[in-house]
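for the writeup, i need someone to sanity check this before i put it in the appendix. the sequnce is what the collaborator sent (i think, or maybe the updated version? ugh). structure was predicted straight from it, no edits. if anything looks off just tell me and ill rerun, i have time this weekend
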Amino acid sequence: MEKYNFQYALPDKEGYFGEYGGSFIPPQLQEIMDEITEAYLKIKEDESFLTELHDLYTHYVGRPSPIFHAKNLSKKYGAEIYLKREDLNHTGAHKINHCLGEALLAKKMGKKKLIAETGAGQHGVALATAAALVGLKCDIYMGEVDIAKEHPNVVRMKILGANVIPATHGLKTLKEAVDAAFEGYLKDPVTQFYAIGSVVGPHPFPMMVRDFQSIVGQEAREQFQTMTGELPENIVACVGGGSNALGIFTAFLDDKSVSLYGVEPAGKGIEREGEHAASITKGKPGIMHGFKSYMLSDKRGEPSKVYSVASGLDYPSVGPQHSYLKDIKRVDYRYIDDTEAMSAFFELSRVEGIIPAIESAHALAYAIKLAKEKPGSSILVNLSGRGDKDIDFAVENFGDEFGIEL
């Protein structure tokens, strides 16, 4: 298996995917971003950097993550369902892929501290892990609501040596954590490195995170062909900011025989304003957090209130490349509500013995729908994370419905 292929046509030199992306930040911060861009463009061609990252993926993360043929689900729903097991990575999700890359880059640039936002806590745990490994300080900003909801991950971050800083304004969830992290970064952008947790933010982060996550699709492409002799007919991934989805989609974008589905959170109802986070489905182009993309906004153009049962998906915008892929109709963006996602969460647990992250359960729920629509077809789901972090919340809020008593 080749180590990496970081050569992609987009974004352009200004960080645009079509009309989306770019860098809408103050001039003094733009100078720092330009330095990061220059450093990244150099290291992604540096054989020693790629070798170090590849060795960490192999011996530290446990890559390649396997593809599992979910035969019980396949038999039940009439299509061949496969799972790309990113949940088996060290730290329990796909987030470690880009966190290691960003941490190594920050170290080579002479930075002293990594800072980031986190929603469900998986990015925070992964970055705290990477910071410990490379010897950098680490601040993680997390909404107060999510701190209470994802308590196990908060404890993990603290054990790893990270400083967990609550975001106490607004809805106290992911969007506010991003706000707080940007504020913290602006206080000292010279010695700090903001390791953005998805394919969002100003250039070069949508490109850089995409590139580091592309290992998922590169592996999956080779693995699936080895297993079946062909490419998957359908690939499904959840979309919040969209890093796990682009991670697996990127290797298949030129394969017109492969249908790609990005699954957004419909929350408590796709037509209920403020009760979902389906930025692509219900949003329109706008600018927030330094980039242009589809976003959910109010009449003043400010980010709307959003909600999802999955803390990692409740963000009012989406990575700019996803907006571009929607416009050119290469990816079909659908949505799954809380009830459907939680049903899939318990379904996979009980039918295949795999407890998924609630975020990943959105993708699985749509794959089950797709299996009924396309009987006999092959469906590859990017199982982006494991559900250890979600078990208390799931049982407390949905346990009665699924016959669980504590």
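The chain is about 45% helix and 15% strand. The longest strand covers residues 259-267.
thx in advance!!
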